[in-house]
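quick q for whoever's on today - can somebody do inverse folding on this one?? i tried earlier but teh output was garbage lol. tokens:
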């Protein structure tokens, strides 16, 4: 097998991607505010009181308010995503640390076994019986 796959947590790449989430949230919030302002701008003085234009004004106002509401809900989801993503990033970072510590402990324990009196005695017996050559 050539090479190995690294499934390690890439903190710098994740942080770079995470930095775009607040920008997205700001853009959606700005668009929601603008949509609400568009709806509020649909005044009777601009459209008049006639039935046709008045009904159309009402439809336009409702449309902009609905768009603003949808965008605010989308922004709530972005905020939830951002919170969950950052928690997951911290958990991944902690898991990496835990894994490094566990691997270090395993390596230490294996080293202790390899340097034990029993391992040394077995090594000498293998050399004596010519199953193992002396190390250089």
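ok took a stab at it. sequence:
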């Amino acid at each position: 097998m050539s090479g190995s796959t690294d499934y390690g947590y890439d903190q710098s790449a994740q942080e770079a991607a995470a930095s775009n989430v607040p920008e997205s949230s700001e853009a959606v919030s700005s668009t929601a505010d603008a949509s609400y302002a568009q709806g509020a701008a649909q005044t009777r003085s601009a459209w008049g009181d006639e039935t046709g234009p008045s009904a159309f004004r009402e439809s336009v106002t409702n449309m902009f308010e609905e768009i603003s509401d949808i965008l605010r809900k989308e922004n709530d989801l972005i905020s939830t995503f951002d919170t969950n993503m950052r928690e997951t990033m911290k958990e991944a970072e902690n898991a990496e640390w835990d894994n490094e510590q566990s691997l270090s402990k395993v390596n230490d324990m294996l080293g202790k076994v390899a340097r034990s009196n029993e391992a040394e005695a077995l090594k000498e017996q293998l050399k004596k019986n010519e199953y193992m050559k002396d190390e250089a």
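fwiw Residues 51-114 form the longest helix (64 residues). also The CA atoms of residues 114 and 120 lie 8 Å apart. so keep that in mind when u check it
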